[in-house]
Every structure is written in C-alpha cells, then in structure tokens.
C-alpha cells in the first residue's frame, strides 16, 4: 500500500469539495451545487460558494452558485492607478471578521464586515509603498482583504472563478494577529518552520533550541518585514492563476513539470530529506530536531527555495514569486540556523544551485514580460 504522509492526509481531510471543481459543460453549475449540498456544506435556504482547497493557504472559489454576485461586481473600482485611488479601493475591500478561512471561502461575497475594518488600511498602504511599482496593481485590485481572528494560518489566498472555470478575481485573508504584532519575516517563518519539529502552536512563539530562519529584508517604511513577505506570497498565488502557470489539478504545466511528478509529489531529483514528513499546521507527528541540519543541507541541493515551497506546485510558485519580489527590492540575506549544528547560507545556494536558478529565471522572465497579468480584474484566459 502506498504510504500517505500526515501532511497529505490532513490536507485531503480539510478539502471542502474533493475532486476537480472546474467541470466542463452546461451542467457544471448544477453538478457543483448538488455535490456541495450532498457534502453537508450548504442548506436549502443558504447556498454558498463551491470551494476547493489546493494547499494549506490557497483556495479556488466558484463565486456565482445560487445566483449571488461575485464581490468584484460591487467592490472593484475602475481606476486604481495612483496611491489615492488604491487607498479608496482598499478601504472598500478590507473586511474585519471572526470567520475561519473555510467560512470566508464559502461566503466570501456576503461576509459581514466589522465597523472598524478601515483601521487596517494604513498598514496595507505602508506595504504598498514598499512594493515594486508594477506589483501594486495586484494589491489594489483585490476583491476583498479579510482580517480575521478565525484564520489559524498566517494568511491565505483564493482565486475566484465563475462556474465555467474562468478566473474573475481574487481575495486574501490575513490573521489579525499578524497586523497587530507587526512581526518580522524571521518571526513568522521561524514559527511556522518550528511547527514541523514540534514547536509551539502559539502564534509567533519561538523555541531558541529549534531552527531559526532569517530573511533580513531592508524596509523603508514598514516597521518590520513580515507583512511584506506574507503579502508577496499570497499575491503570488493570484499571479499564478491569473496567468495559468499551474493548472487546476496542480500538474501538467511547464512550471509544474520542472519539479513535480504529480500534483503532490516532487520528482526524485528535486526533493530533499524528510520532505514527505513536513507539516506546518495541525500536525499529528513531528520531525526529529537532531535531523534538522541534514534536512536543510539537503534542501540546499534540492529544487525548492524553502521547505514550504515543496508542499505543492502552487506553494512552489508562490514562494518563488515572493522571493523574486524580495530580491529585486529588499536585498534579502536568507540564512537557516540550526542551534548547535550550524548555518546554511541560502543566498549562496541561489547563486550556485541550477535547479533553483532555473525556476527563479522563469519567474524573472514573467516579471519582465509586459503581458504577465498583475491586475486581478483582467486575468488571462
């Protein structure tokens, strides 16, 4: 019997609708609605969106089930070409709530927003100032930016499609504590990485005996670099689907074939030690901290910029995109330190590892290509 990792089994158990959401033909909407109702995720009086969870922090939402209009029909402004218009768009898009990520994805276009939602806009505008100019359009054309205590990961993103599989927009959700704490990227990434080794689930708790990861980004306006990194990653998910980088099944595109044998498994030459045993949220088993240095030495020879990139083809692209955004504007110094065992200089890895460099070159070409769709209102079809 094929061994199924704890990470893979957990992700499958959290998927709201198993199998391909994007079905062909005129009966698609009826089939999706029937399947979702049978799964127990809707009632006869309140039909929500069909949602597929593709990875820990990436969903696809089919937003026109039951006749409800996508959020983009209400929230998107025609002109977001300058800072003032972007701020106006974000003021309309930001939504403070207590909903979970799955609840948001199910009812994203009808979630009730708190009266003080606009208080988060100034922090988003600080991120706007830090972003490469062209990338600002991705932030300013989001359907929604949810800020919630109910989100247990750092953040998540969702591409929005109509019932025929056409991408129509996107939204993100961010854990409220991420805004309140203003964490550094080192705090966020080290906390998440330590979860795989049995670290504390308390948000941003740090065990000095476990792995420490540092990006050391150079900020101009933001007090810390954590929000910048998180947002670049989540927007990377939307860039992915706006430009058809990954398929809905997560495999069979030129990008995925660089490192993946299917939508969940890297090819043998791309992977690293104990990759199948990594888990970042709701873990049931843990890696041995004594193996950490060997794991990160192995990672440095793999095709992945981070361990999280090796979760799925979607996370692979989002991490590479985020890293390129950091490389071109924030002079990162990426190191992985295992207390008592040593440090891996990942900057040197990026320069020397052809498997990583090949994917970074693809991302760089996309960034430099004027045809790459950054605007969430006008994805490629």
Helix content: 25-40%
Rg of Cα set: 20 Å
Q: How are helices and strands ordered from N to C? A: HHEEHHEHHHEEEHHEHHHHEEHH
> Which secondary-structure class do the elements indicate?
alpha/beta
What strand order characterises the main sheet? 1-2-5-6-4-3
* General form: globular
- Uncertain stretches of 5 or more adjacent residues: 1-47, 65-75
How far apart the termini lie comes to: 40 Å
Overall strand count: 9
Strand composition percent: 5-15%
- Helical stretch tally: 15
Largest sheet: 6 strands, mixed
Q: What is the mean predicted local confidence, pLDDT?
A: 83
Give the tally of structural domains.
Answer: 2
Structure description:
The chain is an alpha/beta fold. The protein has 2 domains: 176 residues, no CATH class; 151 residues, no CATH class. Helix content is 37%, strand content 12%. The chain has 15 helices and 9 strands. Strands 1-2-5-6-4-3 form a 6-stranded mixed beta sheet. Helix 4 crosses helix 6 and helix 10 packs across helix 13.
Output the keywords.
single chain; alpha/beta; 15 helices; disordered N terminus
Question: What's the short story on this structure?
Answer:
This protein has 381 residues and is an alpha/beta fold. The protein has 2 domains: 6-181, no CATH class; 212-227 and 234-368, no CATH class.
């Amino acid at each position: 019997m094929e061994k199924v990792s704890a990470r893979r089994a957990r992700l499958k158990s959290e998927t709201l609708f198993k199998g391909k959401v994007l079905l062909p033909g005129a009966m698609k909407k009826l089939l999706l609605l029937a399947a979702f109702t049978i799964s127990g995720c809707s009632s006869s009086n309140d039909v929500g969106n069909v949602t597929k969870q593709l990875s820990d922090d990436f969903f696809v939402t089919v937003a026109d089930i039951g006749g409800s209009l996508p959020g983009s029909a209400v929230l998107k402004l025609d002109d977001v070409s300058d800072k003032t218009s972007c701020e106006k768009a974000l003021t309309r898009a930001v939504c403070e709530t207590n909903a979970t990520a799955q609840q948001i994805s199910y009812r994203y276009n009808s979630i009730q927003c708190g009266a003080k939602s606009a208080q988060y806009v100034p922090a988003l505008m600080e991120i706007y100032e830090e972003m490469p100019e062209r990338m600002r359009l991705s932030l300013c054309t989001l359907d929604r930016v949810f800020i919630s205590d109910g989100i247990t990961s750092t953040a998540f993103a969702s591409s929005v499609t109509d019932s025929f599989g056409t991408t129509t927009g996107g939204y993100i959700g961010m854990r409220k504590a991420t805004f309140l704490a203003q964490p550094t990227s080192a705090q966020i990434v080290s906390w998440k990485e330590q979860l795989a080794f049995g670290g504390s689930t308390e948000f941003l708790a740090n065990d000095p005996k476990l792995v420490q990861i540092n990006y050391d980004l150079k900020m101009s306006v933001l007090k810390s670099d954590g929000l910048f990194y998180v947002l670049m990653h989540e927007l990377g998910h939307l860039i992915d689907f706006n430009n058809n980088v990954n398929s809905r099944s997560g495999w069979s595109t030129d990008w995925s074939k660089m490192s993946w044998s299917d939508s969940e498994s890297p090819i043998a030459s791309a992977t690293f030690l104990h990759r199948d045993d990594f888990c970042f949220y709701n873990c049931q088993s843990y890696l041995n901290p004594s193996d950490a240095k060997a794991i990160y030495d192995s990672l440095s020879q793999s095709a992945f910029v981070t361990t999280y990139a090796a979760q799925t083809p979607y996370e692979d692209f989002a991490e590479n995109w985020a890293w390129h955004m950091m490389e071109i504007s924030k002079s990162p110094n990426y190191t992985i330190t295992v207390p008592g065992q040593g440090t891996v200089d990942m900057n040197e890895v990026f320069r020397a590892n052809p498997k990583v460099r090949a994917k970074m070159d693809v991302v760089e070409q996309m960034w430099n290509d004027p045809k790459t769709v950054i605007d969430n209102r006008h994805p490629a079809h």
